[in-house]
Amino acid sequence: MFKRILITSGPTIEPIDPVRFLSNRSSGRTGCHLAEEARRRGLGPVVFITGPTAHIPARAQVVRVESAQEMRAAVNEHWRRADVIIMAAAVSDYRSVKYYPDKMKKDGERLTLELVKNPDILLELGGRKRRGQVLVGFAAETEDIFANAQKKLLAKNLDLLVLNEISAANPAFGSEENQVYLVRRDGVRRLETMSKALVAARVWDEIIDLAGRAG
Ligand code: CTP
After folding, report:
1. For the chain, how are helix, strand and coil distributed in percent, rounded to 5?
2. Residue 110 per-residue DSSP state
3. Cβ of 104: how many Cβ atoms within 10 Å?
4. Which residues of the chain have pLDDT under 70?
5. Residue 102: what are its φ and ψ, rounded to 5°?
6. Is the dihedral angle over the CA atoms 161, 162, 163, 166 positive or is it negative?
7. Is residue 174 part of a domain?
8. What pLDDT is recorded for position 182?
9. How far apart are CA 144 and CA 151, in angstroms?
10. How many domains does one find in the chain?
C-alpha cells in the first residue's frame, strides 16, 4: 500500500561526559507497535530509526541512533523515499552546549550545565513535505491541550497529531496503556484508554483514511 514507511521511536540521549547523559522517559513501545502493526497489515517496508530502547520491531530496517543530531541525520537520509513518516520519538529538546571528554568531578556544591536547543526534526520535515506524503507527529500537553495541539499541527504542517494529555491518571510515558486524542485539521477524536498496541492500530486506521483522501 505504501512505498516506504519511516518511523522514529524511543528517546534520544544527549551526552554530557563519558558516563552521563540527558534523556527522557520514553519507552519506545508505541513506535515499536506502529512498526509491528504496519508489518502485520502488509502496509509496506518500514525504516525504523530509534534511540536507545528495548522495543525493536522484527523485520524492519533498524537504524540505531543516540542523540537528536544523529536522529536528524538518519531521518534526512531516509525521509525522501517515505510516503508515510511517523515521528514517535521523544526527541530531547535540549543538549549540553559542551561535551566534557573527561568525566566531570563533583568538586562543588552546585553545578550549572548550559543547554542549547536541539533542531526540531519534525518542524524541518513539515517545511519540506512532498505532495502525498503523510506526516504524523506526537505531542504531550498538560494545559490548553487542544489549542496547543492545533497550533502544533499547523506550525509543523502535520496531517495527524497523536496528542497525549499528561496527568496523574494518564502518565503515558513508561506505561503499557495510553489515552490519546487523534487531532486532524478537520477535527479531534478521543480514544478510550487502551493498550499501546491498540493505539498503534487506530493511528494506522487514521493514516490510511488520510492517505485515501489525499490520493
Ligand atoms: N520533535 C522533533 N524534534 C525535536 C522535538 C520534537 O522531531 N527536537 C517531534 C517529536 O518526535 C514529536 C513532536 O515533534 O513528534 C513533539 O513536538 P514538541 O513540540 O516537542 O511537543 P511536546 O513534546 O508536546 O513539547 P512542548 O511542550 O515543547 O510543546
Report:
1. 30, 30, 45
2. -
3. 13
4. 213-215
5. -100, 140
6. negative
7. yes
8. 98
9. 11
10. 1
12 is a domain residue: yes
- Report CA(38)–ligand 1 centroid distance (Å): 23
Cβ neighbours of residue 170 closer than 8 Å, sequence gap 6 or more:
164, 178, 179, 193
Q: Which amino acid is at 132?
A: G
Q: Atom 18, ligand 1: which residue's CA is nearest?
A: 139
Three-state secondary structure call for residue 9? strand
Report pLDDT for 213.
63
Please list every protein residue whose CB sits less than 6 Å from any atom of ligand 1: 68, 87, 89, 91, 93, 118-122, 137-141, 152
In a domain, 102, yes or no: no
Closest to 61 in 3D by CA, of 78, 76, 48, 43? 48
Range of the domain at 11: 5-96+113-213
**Other Cβ atoms closer than 10 A to 148:** 16
- Dist. CA 91 → ligand 1 center (Å): 7
Q: What is the pLDDT of residue 28?
A: 96
pTM of the model: 0.96
Per-residue pLDDT at 163:
97
Catalytic residues: 24
pLDDT of residue 165: 87
Name the residue type at position 203.
V
CATH assignment of the domain containing 16: 3.40.50.10300
